[in-house]
Design a protein that fits this description.
Jelly Rolls, eleven-stranded mixed sheet, 18 helices, binds 2-acetamido-2-deoxy-beta-D-glucopyranose, Phosphorylase Kinase, domain 1, 4 domains
């Protein structure tokens, strides 16, 4: 039996495209073989035909015993039979159209019913079109699909099986299907610096991982190219805060974006996102880890599709093995603000050492961007090396990797189970640690929260802290650490055991009212997460204490920067940005859940500034759920701060979101004028800021009053158009009737417009600074964005945005 190679021309041609010739894609070549089978085998909507043309006795068909159960996601019927190849054997497929083809090899080693030879004792190599696909391969005991894409440039594709010494080869099923060449780009940039282009046309690729985010697998039948997508659950790295979302109907393929052949609806319609509900700080990465063979380069494709309707821009970072693929990826920009449009990002990385690929999606550090991130799918493909190898160059690590791959497969099967266990464990840890606190409150924090440090510390989930930990953090509530005093009590600057700096608000004890507000605040803060709402880190209710731990805001309150302190004055631009930030926070409160949340105590002392002067709304102690849909207001006892109170609310005790809008209008004038809302030291008529504004406005002298009331520091340092816009919107907020006031969304849009006008002026100056210019661009884009995605803005249309922008430009031409 010396020479064993022989060729076989298959007569089974494209006629095998029997049923599934879907509208989207009709492959020119579509060869489906169920090896060793005596008859056709249906798998989903496809039919695999027998390989009867292999009639040589050295290529015996074998079947698994009927009793054997086969755990397969692909359809177990393909794995009931196999063809044993005792010598080098070729499968030859005619190729009518050159280009890329998928080759899928199906392996499942069973003990055949007819004889004693166990398929798992096989060892063999497989090559095709000059590429080594498998080298001395020993199959796992589970069904395995090896998928490759080859750019076939001849009229036939020959796949060669070569048994290793003293062994044999086998195959259960084989697919050769042409696919659109566009699936694999001509070249892609490496993530390693300096970024260079890596050509792909002449390379073979092997699918290492094809993952659907959202913790759902996608079967080949739901993919136009019969690809199988595994669920991402098992690959999520520990310590991640993820949430799975599914909304298939939101997927909206566009002409210029990825087609359904790039990835199906089932992939784009589900995603894994940063869980910013359970995760207040939320500045973190979510990572998925994959074991891969070292020594190869890998093509990685990220699939994105924002299927969640959100009124703000979605911006995040994308990393591959800690190297940046894209910083501040703005999905709304990339998809031209088309809701639900898919988007892909490709990258190539070379993997050495431990043979890992970590895919990370992280929150952006950009100012004004909410902490959000999503991923819908990821594909990792091994690229053939310069010698045409996809396997075998690192035989030592090979066996290791194949074992770990097997593990992944097994895990994948029980993904749902694993997640369930993780969930139960998490709950257990939570319950146990809570019990620990009650039982032994003198144990050190680190010991008491062993799990917090590993699971929660990065994200600062709102958590119950023992009193002694807070005492330590604040040097036993040292007076020297007091950074604020309010009606509720004192606020201290503290340092937690992990050196996180925090603000600790300690309620004055034994006040019933205080307790209700304390509970409301914790409830609100753990429910709502937003870049422009101050984050809850934890709380303590031990020994009747009412302590809330927040993220530390380095620059304190907005109020302190406006008057009554010797802090440096804020520029007009800074003030606009602070107003925009806090408007975003309030807009989020009003709109992010079915039932609007009303803050009820909007004032400059409740707007905090971080080290970059980014604004965050704080103090939710008085917050209330807004009216139910069938009601228009919430009736409640009047609370809030003097000088900021909605007159309608005061007289009728009717509370709506518009009460916050009124208070925000007051804040805007405070910001503009740099004076307290009530200033008894002023001459009569101007003691109350609001009354003063209204009185002057009643005289129809709005333009004039602007000169009278504006913070002297700002005079001459702001553009008239921007100022006018600001006063106009602030004045509308102060309307006596809530219905006449704009929504926070309106306010936000107008403020962004005012900022844009301010930016344009800078451009008009004699010296155009680079930073000034880019700020202008930012102003424009953020305006466009919030408008584009905020479908519910009253009376603001896209055309109006454009006309106002044009108008703005004209002003500046003069
Ligand atoms: C996310 O990961 C990247 C790459 O490892 C790192 O540079 C960045 O600091 C991480 N971001 C956060 C918030 O941990």
């Amino acid at each position: 039996m010396g020479f064993g190679g022989f060729g076989l021309l298959l007569f089974v041609m494209s006629t095998m495209c029997l049923i599934k010739c879907s509208l989207e894609f009709d492959p020119v070549a579509n060869y489906l073989l169920d090896c060793g089978s005596p008859r056709n085998t249906s798998v989903g909507d496809r039919v695999f035909v027998p390989d009867r043309f292999l009639s040589n006795p050295e290529q015996e068909p074998v079947s698994a015993p009927d009793s054997q159960t086969i755990p397969s996601a692909y359809g177990s019927s393909l794995y009931r039979t196999a063809r044993i190849l005792n010598r080098t054997s070729n499968f030859t497929f005619p190729i009518n159209q050159h280009g890329r083809h998928f080759v899928r090899l199906h392996f499942f080693p069973f003990v055949p019913n007819t004889q004693t030879r166990n398929l798992s004792s096989s060892k063999f190599s497989v090559s095709a079109h000059g590429f080594t696909l498998l080298k001395d391969f020993e199959p796992d005991s589970t069904p395995t699909v090896k998928e490759y894409t080859l750019n076939v440039t001849s009229d036939e594709l020959v796949i060669t099986f070569t048994p290793s010494v003293n062994s044999f080869a086998f195959i259960n099923a084989l697919e050769v299907i042409s696919h659109p060449d566009e699936l694999i780009p001509v070249s892609t940039e490496t993530v390693e610096l300096p970024k260079t282009l890596h050509g792909l046309t002449a390379r073979a690729l092997q699918t290492v991982a094809r993952i659907n985010m959202g913790n759902r697998s996608v079967s080949p039948d739901d993919d136009t190219l019969w690809r199988s997508w595994n669920s991402d659950g098992p690959f999520i790295k520990q310590n991640n805060f993820v949430q799975f979302v599914s909304n298939l109907s939101a997927v909206n393929y566009t002409e210029n974006g990825p087609s359904v052949d790039i990835a199906p609806i089932a992939v784009y319609g589900t995603l894994t996102k940063l869980d910013n509900e359970l995760n207040p700080g939320a500045i973190l990465n979510n990572t998925w880890s994959f074991n891969v063979d070292p020594g190869f380069s890998y093509f990685v494709r990220f699939h994105f599709c924002d299927i969640i309707h959100r009124p703000w821009e979605l911006v995040f970072n994308v990393y591959l093995n800690s190297m940046s693929v894209k910083k501040d990826l703005n999905l709304d920009h990339e998809t031209s603000n088309i809701q639900g449009a898919p988007y892909i990002l490709d990258a190539i990385t070379h993997v050495g050492g431990p043979g890992m690929i970590n895919v990370s999606i992280g929150t952006s550090n950009l100012n004004g961007v909410p902490p959000e991130s999503i991923l819908n799918g990821v594909e990792i493909m091994k690229i053939s090396d310069n010698k045409g190898n996809l396997d075998g160059t690192h035989s030592k690590t090979m066996s290791l990797t194949s074992r770990s791959k097997k593990k992944i497969w097994v895990i994948a099967v029980s993904a749902a189970g694993a997640l369930f266990i993780i969930g139960v464990l998490g709950l257990l840890i939570f319950v146990l640690s809570r019990r620990n606190i009650k039982k032994a409150s003198n144990v050190g924090l680190v010991e008491q929260y062993p799990d917090e440090s590993t699971i929660f510390s990065k994200s600062k989930v709102g958590y119950r802290f023992p009193l002694h930990a807070i005492q330590e953090a604040t040097d036993r509530f040292s007076e020297s650490l007091v950074i604020g005093i309010g009606g509720f009590g004192k606020v201290y600057k503290g340092t937690l055991f992990d050196s996180t700096i925090v603000a600790v608000k300690r309620g004055a004890p034994q006040s019933h009212q205080g307790l209700a507000e304390f509970q409301t605040e914790i409830e609100m803060l753990s429910q709502f997460r937003h870049r422009h709402l101050v984050s809850l880190i934890g709380y303590c209710d031990e020994r009747n204490e009412m302590i809330i731990i927040y993220e530390y805001m380095q620059n304190g309150t907005l109020k302190n920067h406006l008057y009554g302190s010797d802090l440096p004055k804020l520029s007009w631009r800074q003030r606009l940005e602070i107003c925009i930030g806090s408007a975003k926070g309030l807009h989020y409160l009003h709109t992010s859940s079915a039932k609007a949340i009303i803050h009820r105590d909007v004032k400059s002392a409740n707007i905090l500034l971080d080290e970059n002067f980014m604004a965050k709304v704080a103090d939710f102690g008085l917050s209330k759920n807004g009216p139910e849909l069938d009601q228009t207001h919430v009736s409640t006892a009047v609370k809030g701060s003097f000088g900021y109170l909605d007159p309608e609310y005061m007289t009728r005790q009717q509370l709506t979101e518009k009460s916050d809008v009124y208070s925000f209008g007051v804040v805007m004038f405070e910001v503009l004028c740099g004076r307290p809302v009530i200033d008894p030291s002023r001459p009569r008529g101007s003691v109350s800021l609001v009354e003063w504004v209204k009185e002057l406005k009643g005289k129809g002298e709005l333009e004039k009053i602007v000169e009278k009331i504006v913070d002297p520091y700002l005079v001459g340092k702001m553009k008239v158009e921007s100022l006018k816009k600001f006063v106009e919107i602030g004045d509308k907020c102060l309307a006596d009737e809530g219905v006449d006031r704009p929504t926070m969304g309106d306010v936000l849009w107008n403020l962004e417009y005012a900022l844009q006008l301010e930016g344009v002026e800078m451009k008009n100056g004699q010296t155009v600074s680079e930073s000034g210019k880019s700020q202008v661009e930012n102003g424009v884009s953020s305006t466009m964005l919030s408008e584009g995605s905020m479908g519910d803005l009253d009376g603001v249309s896209m055309s109006r945005v454009f006309s106002e922008m044009v108008k703005g430009d004209k002003h500046d031409m003069r």
